[in-house]
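Any chance you'd type out a single protein's sequence alongside its tokenized fold?
>
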Amino acid sequence: MAGTSNGRRPTGKPTVPNGKTKPFTSVNYRDTRLAKERQRRQYEQQKKEKIVFALFVVVIIVLILIAILVFKKAISGGGANDTQTDTETTTAPIEETTPPVDVQELDRFLKEMCGKEQIHTGNLLLVDASHPFSDTAKLAEIYFGRNKFQGVYSYYPPDSSTKISTTALAALNQMADEFYELTGNNDLYVDKAYDASATNDHSTGLAFDLSIYTIKHEHYELNDTAASSDFEWVFNNYYKYGFVMESPAQSGERHYHFRYVGIPVATYLFRNELTLTEFLTKLTESHAFADGKTNATSVTTDDGAVYEFYYVEATGGDMTSVPVHEDALFFEISGDNQNGFVVTVRMS
């Protein structure tokens, strides 16, 4: 009791039961902190090593892919000389008339059944003294619903010569509207149209003669007047509306003779300077479907559409199977008023 009863603070170092000196707590804290720091540095080092390894793997994969692509290109490209040849081929001009189309997959053709009477229907009929036409066309008054056409000669019967087929009339109206809008001239004059007794294509309702109507009530051929420069547009654009045009010397008519055949065929005739008769002869002789081949010829219209044409001869029975490719975007079959059918196909 003597060590504490006098109120004095004990002196000397603290002791433990076994007599050893008790270590300071500050020393333990420092060692722990150093251990944690070493552990953190090891973790950071391992993390960096993993990132470096991952980047190395990615680089290796990229190099492998590049090597594969270069190898494939070397195999398929055929070298620098072949690349130059391909470039020259794609820049070469494209001909309007393509080589015959070789189609071997007959199972990809649909069969359109056409009766023998259909040989005498359509927009591509050849009509002359040897191939008459007597079918009743769907006709409409040529000035029905509009007043821009001056009419026809008064000495033609009004129940016949004032009419053409509704198909030809729609195209004529469209062409006339464009002409009037661009030139301001409304003197187009339909001189002659449908004639049931005719031995040419006036009997189809698809044809008419076009001239200039003057203030003196005189009728001229389109290029035989002082105002002919106003009508250059007609000469340069009629095919865009589906018409083929023949001069008086070609048609035997007094004025320029227009016949509706549809835009694809009209474009082909215009580009190749052919008449409808020449076109039909060319198809039958060089572009007839045979041996699983269309043997088609083609044309690209002004709107970029590609159309193919080929001929299918009638089998002689009541029905003829007309093949049309199943991938066709559009097709039309017309009789030729002779021995078969003309097929117009849009493939792209």
Remarks:
- The CA atoms of residues 103 and 293 lie 5 Å apart.
- The chain has a mean pLDDT of 76.
- The chain is about 35% helix and 20% strand.
- The longest strand covers residues 306-313.
